[in-house]
Amino acid sequence: MNVLMLNGSPRSHSNTALALDEMERVFQEEGISCTIRQVGQMDIRGCIACDTCGKTGKCTFDDIVNELAKEFEKADGLVVGTPVYFGSANPTLVALLDRLFYSTHFDKTMKVGAGISVARRGGTSATYDELNKFFALTGMPIATGQYWNGLHGRAQGEGSQDEEGLQQMRVVARNMAFLIKSIKLGKEAFGLPKVEERVRTNFVR
Q1: Cα(16)–Cα(117) distance, rounded to whole angstroms?
Q2: How far apart are CA 33 and CA 50, in angstroms?
Q3: What separation in angstroms does the CA of 82 have from each of 149, 171, 202?
Q4: In this structure, which long-range contacts are made by residues 24-27, counting pairs with CB atoms below 8 Å and at least 24 apart in sequence?
Q5: What is the Cα–Cα distance from 140 to 72, expressed in whole angstroms?
Q6: What integer pLDDT is reported at residue 203 of this predicted model?
Q7: Which domain of life is it from (predicted)?
Q8: pLDDT of residue 205
Q9: Which option is the CATH number for 2-190: 3.40.50.360, 3.90.180.10, 3.90.920.20, 3.40.47.10?
């Protein structure tokens, strides 16, 4: 069992990294391997709706997105962490997620997702909602904890003073580990839920 973790901060020793490291320690205790990829500093352009991926099975821009697609397909869970910019996620990360989720056609059903937002003060809950939409649109159960998944801190390392936030990271990681293990057992005993042929209705006639 393994989890892919995306760090959407442009800084390698950020409070976002601190939050993900706290989760990684719990995953290791639970026997789940982790791969952390820092992507917030990369030059990642957004989706242009060319639909090339519908024909080739991969994004037309052959960059980190296509590389991560292979790791995402193999993973049992995906954790996405980001700093808050103007009440939302780092736009670089959003561009990556738009393309990653849209261009990949493998079944994401029952992969477990968790979104983590980090801020000086406000915007964490809006960003948390923003990240969860990617999981909800693709049949991924969302790991939750005892509060919204956020950590507070502005200066480097300041997040280490947010004891409640760090506890939330640990709780989410434990709950995520439990879901991953339970889904693995469920697949073996019952298989995945029945898949219906997709119905697409356009509202403009």
Answers
A1: 8
A2: 35
A3: 11, 18, 33
A4: 24/173, 25/170, 26/169, 26/170, 26/173, 26/174, 26/177, 27/3, 27/173, 27/176, 27/177
A5: 12
A6: 84
A7: Bacteria
A8: 63
A9: 3.40.50.360
CB atoms within 10 A of CB 48: 11
203: tokens are 């509202």
Kindly list the distances between the CA atom of residue 61 and the CA atoms of 5, 44, 67, 90, in Å, as whole numbers in the listed order.
22, 9, 11, 20
Position 3 scores a pLDDT of: 98
How far is Cα 141 from Cα 137, in angstroms, rounded to an integer?
Answer: 10
User: Cα(140)–Cα(95) distance, rounded to whole angstroms?
Assistant: 20
Mean pLDDT by 10 residues, the chain (205 residues): 98 96 98 98 96 95 97 98 97 98 96 98 96 97 96 96 98 98 96 90 80
